[in-house]
Design goal:
The protein is an alpha/beta fold. It has one domain: TIM Barrel (Alpha-Beta Barrel). α1 crosses α10 and α7 runs parallel beside α8. The longest helix has 23 residues. The two termini are 34 Å apart. Bound molecules: D-xylitol-5-phosphate and zinc ion. D-xylitol-5-phosphate binds next to β2, β8 and α9. It catalyses: D-ribulose 5-phosphate = D-xylulose 5-phosphate. Its cofactor is Co(2+); a divalent metal cation; Fe(2+); Zn(2+). Belongs to the ribulose-phosphate 3-epimerase family.
């Protein structure tokens, strides 16, 4: 066997081994969920389809009630229409920036939501809400605002599917990424190695590496994806950064 052929085979074997070890040891994977908040809201259906065609893994839908946050978006009637318009496949992660999140669980499930991500700050009984979301057939996401410590989320981490660490004050798209939230992500990753951890707010090509290194694997990106001339490339770049960090973490273990 000549030297060139041997080195090519060696490289392939190493890649195969790395791929196998990563898929065996890591329960989570890189997923990119565009936030359609900053898209043309009069064309939400086609914007959602466009994002899925550009390689989005899921759609992050921001529900605001003008009370929990100082902004207003849409509710379950809009989600029902979107589901009809985009079909059964796209995964809807509902980011519920609302007071009394308990009241929208059943309507959102009926409208076709897949995951109900509520804010810890908005409820006095997270345990009961988690149970109600599960009984409605949705996955459970639990979000914390920048002022909430990760230790407050930790008691619920084994009962949820995803933890959302906000990297801006919730309410508006296009804000500056808060890098000082990254220790929360790192701590969660160290304590809960297989938990889905999402970041949301100011995440794009300039900030993704911090998120990926800290251990986030579900990436919400609004303006960076929506306002790009080439959303497909931005989504691919974000996913590659996260996948590489996951791979590195699996090799370091
Ligand atoms: C903010 C929302 C985010 C926002 C993200 O309250 O929860 O999902 O739309 O948008 P960018 O990526 O522009 O910060
Ligand atoms: Zn959001």
């Amino acid at each position: 066997m000549n030297v060139l052929r041997r080195s090519v085979l060696g490289l392939l074997a190493a890649r195969l081994h790395a791929g196998t070890s990563s898929s065996r040891s890591m329960a989570y994977s890189a997923k990119i969920g565009p936030s359609i908040l900053s898209s043309d809201l009069s064309c939400l259906g086609s914007e959602c389809v466009r994002m899925m065609e550009c390689g989005a893994d899921y759609l992050h839908l921001d529900v605001m009630d003008g009370h929990f946050v100082p902004n207003l978006t849409f509710g379950h009637p809009m989600v029902e229409c979107l589901r009809k318009s985009v079909g059964q496949d796209p995964f809807f992660d509902m980011h519920m920036m609302v007071s009394r999140p308990e009241q929208w669980v059943k309507p959102m499930a009926a409208a076709g939501a897949n995951q109900y991500t509520f804010h810890l700050e908005a409820t006095t009984n997270p345990g009961n809400l988690i149970k109600e979301i599960r009984e409605s057939g949705m996955k459970v996401g639990l979000a914390i605002k920048p002022g909430t410590t990760v230790e407050e989320l930790a008691p619920w981490a084994n009962q949820i599917d995803m933890a959302l660490v906000m990297t801006v004050e919730p309410g508006f798209g296009g804000q500056k990424f808060m890098e000082d939230m990254m220790p929360k992500v790192s701590w969660l990753r160290s304590q809960f190695p297989s938990l889905d951890i999402e970041v949301d707010g100011g995440v794009g090509p300039d900030t993704i590496h911090k998120c990926a290194e800290a251990g986030a694997n579900m990436i919400v990106s609004g303006s960076a994806v929506i306002s790009s001339d080439d959303p497909r490339s931005v989504i691919a770049l974000l996913r590659t950064a996260v996948a590489e960090a996951i791979q590195k973490r699996s090799l370091d273990r």
